[in-house]
Every structure is written in C-alpha cells, then in structure tokens.
Fold these 2 entries.
Entry 1:
Amino acid sequence: MALVTNVEVERARRLIDGLRRDRRTHPRHGRGEYSQLARDVVAACAALIDSEPAAVPALARRAVDLVTTALMYVDDSSGVLSEDLRALMVVHARACAVAPPDPKRLAGWLAKLRLDGPGWPDFELRDYAVALGEKGRAELARRVEDRARTAEPDAFGRTPFGIRVLREQLAEISGDVDRYVAVLAEDLYAAPQYRKIVNVLRNAGRVAEAERWARQGLGIGNSIDKGKLRDDYVDLLLERGASDEAFALRWQLFDGNPIKTNYDDLRRTAERIGDWSGVRDKAVSRLREATIGQPCYADHLIGVYLDEGELDEAWQVAADHVEDLFDSRWQQLIELRQPTHPGDVIEPWQRLVQRRLDASTDKYRYGKAIKMLRRLRDAYHAAGDAAGFDRYLDHLRDRHKRKTSFIAKLDHANL
C-alpha cells in the first residue's frame, strides 16, 4: 500500500513540474493543454488527501505558486485558468484542514499571496481557520500590521486592498462579532460593507442593530450595490411585523424609478404581505404613465406584461413605441406573436431586416438578415400572401443590388 501511495505522490510531483511555464512562450500558445494539466493536478492532489494527506499541502502550494506565476504571462481572457487556480486553492485549503502544515509558515504564505501577489489567487481565511489556529492567526495579524505601518494609501486615499481584506477576514474568523463589526466599520465605502455588518449581527440574533445598520447603509450617497442591502432591510422589517414600512419603502423606490426590477421587488414584497392584487393595477398604471414622458420605460412595461403572460398588451405597447425598443426586444415579441398573428409581424420583420442590412459595423449582418428573411417568408405564407413575399424580395434585391455579397447569400439561400 505504501508503495502505491509513493507512486501516486511522485506522479503528482511530475504533473506539478509540468506547470512551470517559460515566460517567452506566446501568451496564447498551449492554453488548453496547460488548463487540462492544472485540472489533472487538482484531481491528483484531491485523491491524495485520502491516502497521503500530509503530502498534499506542500504539493498544492507549489502548484498554486506555479500557476500564479504563469498567469502573469498567459492570455486568460476566457477566465478558464483563473478557475483552475481557484480549484487548486480549494484543494490546498482542504488538505490544510486535514493535515495542517506549520501555522506560521502557512500564515506567511497567505500574507505573501494577498499582499505581494499580482492580484490572484483569491481566497477566504475562513477556509484556513482550522489550519492556522491561534498561532497562525497571530502571525498573520502581525504581518498585516507590520505592512500597514509603512503602506501608502491607494489612489482613493484608502488603506490598500490586501491589508483591508486580511484585517476583515481575521476579525471574521476570530468569532468576536463586535470586533468584526468594528473592523468593517473602519471602511464603510459602499453598501456591501454595510451588508456584511447586517448579516453578522442578524446571525447573532442582534436584529435591532442589524436593522439600524441596514437603514444607515441605505442612506449613504453611493447608490451602487444597494439592492441586496435593501432586500435585507425589507426582510428585517417584515420579520419585525413592520409590513407597512416595508411596503412603503418598495413603493417609494418604484414610484421614483418605475423600472421592471423595482416592479418585481414591489410585487415580491406585496405578495409576502398578501396584498398584491390591490397593488398590481396601480403599479402598472404608474409604469404606463412613465412611458408617456420617457419612452425608455416602454421596455420595462413590456417586460412586466410578458412575465405576466399578457402578450397582447405587450404587443400593443411595442406598436406604440416602435423606435424606442432594441431589436432584441422586437425579435422576442415577433417570435411570440407570429404563431397566432402572422400578419402582424410582417412589417416588424421587414424593419429588422433593413436594420441588419444597414448595420455596417456588424460583419455577420448579411447572415442574420437571411435568417430573418426565412422567418418573414413563413409569416407571409401563414398569412396567405406568398406572392407578397415574392414582391417584397424583388424590391429588396433591387434596393440593395450594390451589396453584392448580400445578393450572393440571398441567391444561395434560395428563398
């Protein structure tokens, strides 16, 4: 058994050796093969956790270091290799939980990854909490504070990202709720920070404090990423029985900006309260009113009607806002309308075909136009006007006769 295990360990080492990449290699050369090798390493290390767990932390760590370096010279625009690196980190964390390495050395490595690395890999200290133990956490905290004393603020005048993250995660795994909240409160730059505070207080049963922090976060000037924090606040209000306050919050937001997302949030909250039937017509009327002054809301109204299966109403709104909708929305509506009302979609199909032919920056425009023409032909036939399609096609040929590539594709399509 020991012999078999040693063979598997050596096999893993050989695979990991293959992750070393010459920086002179073209950034796109061999990316697929490299990714497959990384996945083989993940599988080999995962298998060894059961049979030879003590060997895995060092093996996985070396693999992480090699892929981290390789990503500095590889074109990973697809994100595949980044996913492979994350998988390696997961295996490393699992192995460290089963067979903890020296906690101080582990702390030093994690600090180096976060504070001196190129920005990857990402990791969560909670995955290493058991392996770090008190000694490892203390060592990591010491390194973080040593770095903080000499660190220059970032471009926004804030403590550098790596230091902030490690401070937060160290406070999180300490299990001290007040310490964690205090660290988060040092850098309340956006709604996600408030949400972390809300969630930790809520999980600790301190719902009144959680509600207060959620309300404070919703009041900050930066409106980015407030949606989930608002959801948390509404949940807290409903759990407290403050249904009117929760509904008022949803309606105020929808009334000020009647978009589909806010409509969906309003509906979800009203349904939880049990009062959607009395609100729905009022909400739709508000959306229809908004489209009069600002046609951009028409797409949101159509989205609402489609979600609720009111296809005729959605089509009518589109007919009233022909030029205010994206082609993708028109195509969706046409596909839904054509089976039952083929005559209605003829003109919209013609309009989409023309827009494709005029889209000079789209190198696939002619192929897309041909696909639309096939659906347009079907609509003419279903409407009992096959001759009408022939006349339209003759006119289209004449109008675009200078587009020789399109005419060639049209001839080949045999429409």
Entry 2:
Amino acid sequence: MTTQVALVGGTGKLGGIIHAVVDELDGFEVARILTSSSSLSELDGADLVIDASTPQVSIDVVRHAAEQGINVLVATSGWSAERIALIRSLVDAAGTGAVFIPNFSLGSVLGSALAAAAAPFFDSAEIVEAHRESKVDSPSGTAVRTAELIAAARSDLGPVRAPHADQRARGQQVGSVPIHSLRRPGVIAKQDVILAGPGESLTFTHDTVEPALAYAPGIRLAVPFARDAVGVIVGLESMIDIGIRS
C-alpha cells in the first residue's frame, strides 16, 4: 500500500529536494503539496506529513498533524529543545510520531556528534554558522542542535566558559555555547564548531556545497522512519549508529 504524503512548503528549495527524493522511494507518493498559506485541513487524510515550511507556520502544522492522528517529519528550522517541549505532550497523547531533523546531511550530523564527543575535554566552545542571506531564522537549527548536544555531553562538568556573554556581539547562547550567525551571499550552509583549551584549539567544519546531493541520503532514511515512528524523536543520529541519542 502506498503511503500518501502531504508536503508543506513543497515549492521551496528544501521542499523541492524532499519532493524529488520521495518520488524515488518505493511505496511513497507526494499526494498533495501545500504552501505556508494553505489551509491546514488539506493535511487531513494523509498518511504522513512532511513539513518544510517556515518557523512561524511549522508549529501549527505539527499540532494539526498530531490532532488528526498523522505522523509528521519536520524539516523546518527553528525547533529548539524548548520549542519541541511545547508539543511533546500533544504528540504523546495522540500516540503519533513527530520526527525533527535539524539537518539531513550525514556529514553535518557526524560533525555535530564528533564535536559533542570532544566537548568534555575543552572548557571553551563556540559555533560560527553561515547561510545564504535568504535564510529567515538565526541561529540555524543545526547550530542549536549542536549546542544542545555539547551541553548534554558536558552535563557533569557544567557550562562552557564564555567570557563577556552579556555583550550582544558575543552571540546568542544556547546551552551556554555562544552561536554566531552569518547571513551572506555566496554560501549555502557552513558550520564551524571551535573548541579551545590551554595552548590549543580543535575545529570541526562542515560545508554544504550541493544541497540536493548532501541531503538526499538523510531524506531517504528519515521518510520511512518518520512514517513508523512513535513519540518525539530528534535528529538523524537516532537512525544511524554513531553513539549519540536524543
């Protein structure tokens, strides 16, 4: 039986990539495409909702899907742990699944996992992320997720050292980790996680140069996973064995 997918934000850049990948998956079909201004009732009757809309619309999409008993795969940025907590009880009560993917790139997931694994060995950690100027939210969902993983890895050690964090130019802190966001032409998506200690520093860099190629493997993993998921699940690391769990 074919899984009928409702794709929100299917006319955008990421939505177009997701649409192309879903079309190639056996047993899946994009049955309807919604824009951010579409009525949420158009989701009704779908077997799986994939959300690639905007941060403002996304929370309503997730809530509506749960209320209708439909699993949802969230590819929209802007979902921090605090925001996910707002809908966790609704998803659990509905007995559905909500899978949040800050980044479909396997390289990005590995880079964040490696940074989190190294974080307990360094007192200082900062993130610099860059995206094209059209990205409407900052910091990026990937940077937020990376900072949350670093904070979790250091839970027994306490927050990272971030001097002068009261100054706006020091970035936005997530889990005590300062994040600096660049929005400029000529870049697609790049993230540097800079760890530092006495006499040395260690930098993990991930650079997306071709989104369609970089995201396709992660999308192929996430779509079938989301269809069968139960509860709230965050990150591709939940689907591949790299030693990090949400």
